[in-house]
């Protein structure tokens, strides 16, 4: 009998069939495990030796103690393993796979392919006990895009004219639904900073609090990140500082001011920190944004902004009473909305719970109606606060969906359909309650900039909510015998694909209007959701898991026919533009790494495991483990879909040095039984995968 701590007994002679039956292999190598091949359990194993593959045992093992693979007489391509690292394989097994890069990644721990993808997308092995190449980064920003270093001499305030321009840009474009400030109050603050009789540097003036100054600087930083180079007048730039670094200059100045705050917190303290979170999200620093958001929520709750009786307390604000009260409601519900999206993107629990909040929504009034110095007009105008309130209400539905639909415990299929029906009904009711300006019949180009932005954000939010609610149905296998709930599943599955298609079309409209800025983290996240849904839908349709009859137009379903070729072309073009509106290691850059793997699986190339492909990768990536078939990212030849896209796929080789995707993504779609468990865990893991790539 084989010893429990030994991977395999000595190999028998070829003629002894009885001896061969006694072989007990407790652990397969990574290559055999990925290909579902029989493994001899030694290193290199028989399959890897014959195929000239690198034989390794790096995938975490969770079925007892990991046995150390014994040396084989086969010879072959064996990756050198230091002696000290072999026991580490055994010691690392108890570490749950829901921890990536030392950070928790969600409620479920079955990472399977996704954990392997994280370790292989960049061509380097990730060990659970190793330090990252980004070891000098703060623990609060580990894995984020590096910020440019701004010299001390460049930390200077912009001119008053530049501040006025940037603040106006902020209110007119950069804050569609996260409107936490009162414009009249901010303009008064600017006059306090710059309007002194004796010229004083803005950083030295004491007429405005540190948080108030930080708010002005953060508005300038956000506006710069949302401004194209040709938008900002040349005279408003900071001397010799590159325009791309101006926003970071303002952010670092604001961060310094906030670190110097003393005494009791104020409403402005919360507002300033909320703006830093938005800026960090727009500059692809997701982890730092999340860690900054924590103290923001704590200050918010310490001030009691989540309770309705806050008006009886002092907000310690420099704003007038009614303005301060409305701004406190605004920052609360904007935080509630942002909290939900951060939770979905990062796969972490919410910080604000709905049951702890009894505060009213902000009043549906424009800023000038709150200004005590101006007479209020009785003429009803379109309200800028409609969109923020509607967005907060939709985030409540998303929160409910996260709690009820994406659970750790498996759901029965009928129960899942009932939940989806209820959630879709709530989204439809929310949509019917939208004000006319945010309805489907309004053409965005006919609106002024801020209303156009609000309409776009609300539409994206609705598309995302419907995709989020219905996408679990995409992982079912409908090729089996008909289920009782199949008709409902067909309706909601088509709704999922239709909303994904509408999302991609809307993103391309932004491209056409030159409005897809790198700082659009929200648009990029929803585009990633839509693209992943489209690719997975095409994969499952190709494999027969979704009947082709479901793609035909059906009058009862009130939806048009789903054409696979058109859908693929739309996805490919959107992915191209998503890659163009990005910088290295930005969030969109990471989205494209994952999307390229899905796209290649869609076209059928990811399953190819020829020696030529492996040798090609061996030449471009000498240090990359080849236990999974890895091929170059640009796979446009021999695509089964009829492609006529006017844009090429982004050349990730030039961006990454040696771009490669984990072709083992195919194993994620190799189902051997019930897929209910995968439905629960696949989508949350896919959402958070890009932020896990370092």
From TrEMBL:
Q: Which InterPro entries match?
A: Stress_Response_Reg (IPR051711), XnlR_reg_dom (IPR007219), Zn2-C6_fun-type_DNA-bd_sf (IPR036864), Zn2Cys6_DnaBD (IPR001138)
List the SUPFAM superfamilies hit by this protein, alphabetically.
Zn2/Cys6 DNA-binding domain
Composition bias of kind Polar residues appears in: 603-619
GO CC terms of this entry: nucleus
PROSITE patterns assigned: ZN2_CY6_FUNGAL_1, ZN2_CY6_FUNGAL_2
> Which biological processes are named by the entry's GO terms?
DNA-templated transcription; positive regulation of transcription by RNA polymerase II
Output the CDD domains linked to this UniProt entry.
fungal_TF_MHR (cd12148), GAL4 (cd00067)
Q: Name one GO molecular function term.
A: DNA-binding transcription factor activity, RNA polymerase II-specific
User: What are the UniProt keywords, alphabetically?
Assistant: DNA-binding, Membrane, Metal-binding, Nucleus, Transcription, Transcription regulation, Transmembrane, Transmembrane helix
Specify one Pfam family. Answer: Fungal_trans
Enumerate the spans annotated as Zn(2)-C6 fungal-type domain: 28-57
What residues form the membrane-spanning segments? 519-538
Q: Where is this region: Disordered?
A: 1-22, 603-623
The answer to whether the entry has keyword Iron is no
Lineage, top-rank taxon, reads Eukaryota
Q: Where in the cell is it found?
A: Nucleus
PANTHER family in the cross-refs: THIAMINE REPRESSIBLE GENES REGULATORY PROTEIN THI5 (PTHR47540), ZN(II)2CYS6 TRANSCRIPTION FACTOR (EUROFUNG) (PTHR47540:SF3)
What name does this protein carry? Zn(2)-C6 fungal-type domain-containing protein
Native organism: Penicillium cosmopolitanum
């Amino acid at each position: 009998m084989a010893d429990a701590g030994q991977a395999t007994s000595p190999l028998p002679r070829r003629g002894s069939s009885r001896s061969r039956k006694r072989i007990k292999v407790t652990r397969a190598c990574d290559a055999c495990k990925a290909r579902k091949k029989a493994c001899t359990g030694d290193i290199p194993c028989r399959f890897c030796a014959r195929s000239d593959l690198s034989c390794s045992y790096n995938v975490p093992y969770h079925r007892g103690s990991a046995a150390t693979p014994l040396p084989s007489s086969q010879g072959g391509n064996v990756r050198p393993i230091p002696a000290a690292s072999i026991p580490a394989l055994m010691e690392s097994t108890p570490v749950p796979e829901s921890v990536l890069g030392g950070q928790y990644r969600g409620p479920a721990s079955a990472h399977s392919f996704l954990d392997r993808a994280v370790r292989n997308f960049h061509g380097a092995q990730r060990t659970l006990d190793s330090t990252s190449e980004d070891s000098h980064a703060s623990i609060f920003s580990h894995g984020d895009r590096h910020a440019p270093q701004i010299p001390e001499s460049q930390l200077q305030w912009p001119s008053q004219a530049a501040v006025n321009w940037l603040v106006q840009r902020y209110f007119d474009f950069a804050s569609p639904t996260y409107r936490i400030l009162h414009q009249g109050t901010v303009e008064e603050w600017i006059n306090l900073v710059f309007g002194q009789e004796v010229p004083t540097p803005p950083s030295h003036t004491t007429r405005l609090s540190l948080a108030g100054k930080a708010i002005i600087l953060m508005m300038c930083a956000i506006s710069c990140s949302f401004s194209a180079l040709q938008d900002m007048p040349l005279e408003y730039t900071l001397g010799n500082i590159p325009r791309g670094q101006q926003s970071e200059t303002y952010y670092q100045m604001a961060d310094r001011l906030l670190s110097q705050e003393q005494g009791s917190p104020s409403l402005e303290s919360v507002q300033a920190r909320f703006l830093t979170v938005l800026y960090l999200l727009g500059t692809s620093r997701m982890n730092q944004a999340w860690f900054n958001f924590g103290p923001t929520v704590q200050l918010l709750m310490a001030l009691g902004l989540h309770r309705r009786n806050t008006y009886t307390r002092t907000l310690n604000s420099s704003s007038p009473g009614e303005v301060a009260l409305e701004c406190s409601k605004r920052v609360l519900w904007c935080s509630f909305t942002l909290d939900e999206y951060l939770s979905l993107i990062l796969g972490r629990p919410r910080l604000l719970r709905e049951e702890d909040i009894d505060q009213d929504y902000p009043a549906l009034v424009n800023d000038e109606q709150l200004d005590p110095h101006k007479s209020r007009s009785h003429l009803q105008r379109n309200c800028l606060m409609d969109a923020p309130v509607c967005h907060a209400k939709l985030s409540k539905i998303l929160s409910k969906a996260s709690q009820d639909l994406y659970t750790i415990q498996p759901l029965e299929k009928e129960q899942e359909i009932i939940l989806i029906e209820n959630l879709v009904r709530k989204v439809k009711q929310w949509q019917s309650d939208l004000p006319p300006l945010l309805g489907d019949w309004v053409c965005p180009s006919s609106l002024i900039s801020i209303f156009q932005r609000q309409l776009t954000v609300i539409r994206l939010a609705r598309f995302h909510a419907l995709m989020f609610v219905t996408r679990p149905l995409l992982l079912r296998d409908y090729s089996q015998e008909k289920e009782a709930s199949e008709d409902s599943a067909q309706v909601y599955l088509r709704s999922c694909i239709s909303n994904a298609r509408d999302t991609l079309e809307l993103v391309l409209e932004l491209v056409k209007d030159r409005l897809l800025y790198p700082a659009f983290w929200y648009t990029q996240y929803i585009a990633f959701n839509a693209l992943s849904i489209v690719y997975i839908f095409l994969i499952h349709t190709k494999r027969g898991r979704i009947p082709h009859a479901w793609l035909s137009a059906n009058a009862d379903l009130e939806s048009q026919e789903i054409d696979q070729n058109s859908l693929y072309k739309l996805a490919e073009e959107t992915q191209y533009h998503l890659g163009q509106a990005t910088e290295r290691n930005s969030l969109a850059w990471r989205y494209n790494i994952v999307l390229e793997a899905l796209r290649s699986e869609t076209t059928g190339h990811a399953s190819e495991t020829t020696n030529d492909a492996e040798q090609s990768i061996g030449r471009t990536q000498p240090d990359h483990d080849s236990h999974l078939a890895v091929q170059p990212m640009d796979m446009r030849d021999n695509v089964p879909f009829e492609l006529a896209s006017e844009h090429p796929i982004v050349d990730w080789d030039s961006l990454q040095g040696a771009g490669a995707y984990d072709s083992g993504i195919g194993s994620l779609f190799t189902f051997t039984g019930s897929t209910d468990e995968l439905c629960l865990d696949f989508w949350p893991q896919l959402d958070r995968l890009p932020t896990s790539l370092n």
